[in-house]
Design the sequence.
């Protein structure tokens, strides 16, 4: 117990130090590297908080994809900020204000009600109806299916927002992410070796998500990473965004989710409801479609706006 | 038997920890990118390898143990590739400078 | 005990992220700080979930996963906007305040 407590203290200290460094670092590249390290450390914190599903998502999305996204843009935007930041006195005042926010939040943490409110009994009572073993997946796809459905639509909206930043003549073209790696180089070699393993891991994480930590979002992120690796290694090119096949993959998840959810209105008596006998099959079907769409959407979000004419 | 396995775990994981520590000190103290990369590989290859080896007897079954070994192999693969790429970038940056490789 | 420790860490992270968001001028530094802030909020939420008992409360966990994914979508949109701004104006920061 004491050893774990010590581990927690060390972890928290390192997390705070790395977060401060990410804000205080002089150059943008160093700040981004600190941020990636921060994401991995926070993933460890999630494991300590018994949230392995969240730890997987944080490591893959928070540290992995966000890191790739920020490192990529750091390599392209070289200019420094020209307007000076606030002066020393102002910074002190802002620091004091932010510290006050933290102290208020800390006070809230210390005065949380005892016993803690919990939805665990409600989830435990309802989960047999879904046929799932992983309560987080049950919450995501059944109990709070609305959230997840809207979330996938938000992802698509964000992608449309990114695409809409392309100039008119490039609309429908390929995203800018094209890399010329040496065909016999190390990166190309990794790009050929890793995708089969990545695909296997992705499908495994999706499949196991019904009963153990994992699921559509984590699996989709792994698949997106595999695709991005193949693009960066120069083994395949990002597809033009006007491609019909690509667009079908992008909307497959939300459409299947909506379709099965609407059918639930007639079969199970509620929108996004599942008939108990077929609940698990339907949920896994929705998850499979979602995994595919999430993978494509996340990869294209990282790839950015079209930059090459169709 | 139980005691022997525990001792094995403690020894291996501690040895792994020592390699991580040495690698971290190397990262901080070595003078240039290439030597720092050399230090890093000690953490990934030996440090993580020893930690994995020490944890193997604690796994519930062969499948779990294989997963652990798979993680180590993937980390090795990633570390080796990244080391290559970083070293290449570093060589390109210092090419032609005094102390660097010829252009 | 663990929950409280990480809850307090989350509170501190919100402050750190907020400070970076206000003080930094460079748009990418702000995006980074925004992510720190968000992560602090998630950690606060996760601490509340952990208090529900061993294993934690799955409902907040699911919502945190949703949050992480949406944060990535927002960051990607932000990055695209920064690239656009840099291309159009040659600057990577918003206009300075008037006066």
Sequence:
């Amino acid at each position: 117990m004491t050893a774990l407590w010590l581990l927690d203290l060390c972890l928290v200290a390192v997390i705070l130090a790395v977060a401060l460094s990410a804000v205080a670092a002089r150059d943008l590249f160093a700040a981004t590297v600190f941020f990636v390290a921060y994401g991995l450390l926070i993933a460890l914190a999630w494991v300590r908080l018994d949230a392995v599903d969240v730890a997987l998502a944080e490591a893959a999305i928070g540290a992995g994809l966000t890191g790739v996204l920020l490192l990529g843009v750091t390599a392209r935007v070289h200019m420094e900020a020209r307007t000076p930041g606030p002066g020393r006195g102002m910074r002190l005042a802002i620091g004091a204000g932010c510290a006050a926010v933290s102290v208020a939040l800390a006070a809230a943490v210390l005065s949380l009600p005892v016993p803690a409110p919990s939805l665990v009994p409600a989830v435990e009572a309802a989960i047999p109806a879904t046929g799932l073993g992983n309560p987080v997946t049950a919450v995501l796809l059944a109990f709070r299916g609305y959230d997840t459905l809207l979330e996938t639509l938000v992802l698509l909206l964000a992608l449309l927002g990114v695409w809409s930043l392309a100039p008119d003549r490039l609309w429908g073209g390929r995203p800018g992410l094209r890399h010329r790696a040496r065909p016999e180089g190390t990166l190309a070699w990794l790009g050929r070796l890793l995708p089969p393993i990545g695909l296997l891991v992705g499908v495994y994480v999706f499949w196991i998500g019904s009963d153990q930590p994992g699921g559509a979002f984590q699996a989709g992120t792994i698949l997106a990473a595999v695709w991005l690796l193949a693009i960066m290694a120069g083994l395949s090119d990002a597809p033009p965004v006007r491609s019909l096949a690509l667009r079908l993959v992008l909307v497959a998840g939300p459409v299947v989710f909506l379709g099965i959810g609407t059918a639930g209105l007639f079969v199970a008596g509620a929108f996004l409801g599942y008939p108990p006998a077929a609940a698990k099959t339907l949920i896994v079907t929705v998850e499979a479609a979602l995994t595919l769409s999430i993978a494509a959407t996340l990869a294209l979000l990282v790839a950015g706006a079209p930059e090459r004419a169709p | 038997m139980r005691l022997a396995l525990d001792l094995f775990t403690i020894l291996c994981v501690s040895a792994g920890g020592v390699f991580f520590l040495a690698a971290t000190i190397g990262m901080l103290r070595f003078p240039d990118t290439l030597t720092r990369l050399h230090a890093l590989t000690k953490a990934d290859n030996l440090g993580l390898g020893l930690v994995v080896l020490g944890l193997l007897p604690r796994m519930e079954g062969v499948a779990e143990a294989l997963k652990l070994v798979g993680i180590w192999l993937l980390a090795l693969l990633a570390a080796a590739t990244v080391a290559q790429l970083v070293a290449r970038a570093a060589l390109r940056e210092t090419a032609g400078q005094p102390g660097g490789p010829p252009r | 005990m663990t929950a409280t420790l990480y809850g307090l860490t989350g509170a501190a992270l919100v402050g750190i992220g907020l400070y970076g968001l206000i003080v930094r001028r460079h748009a990418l530094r702000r995006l980074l700080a925004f992510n720190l802030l968000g992560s602090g909020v998630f950690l606060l939420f996760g601490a509340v979930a952990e208090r529900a008992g061993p294993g934690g409360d799955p409902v907040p966990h699911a919502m945190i996963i949703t949050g992480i994914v949406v944060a990535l979508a927002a960051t990607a949109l932000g990055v695209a906007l920064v690239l656009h701004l840099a291309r159009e104006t040659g600057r990577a920061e918003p206009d300075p305040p008037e006066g």
In short: Chain A has a mean pLDDT of 90. Chain A is about 70% helix and 0% strand. The two ends of chain A are 60 Å apart (CA to CA).
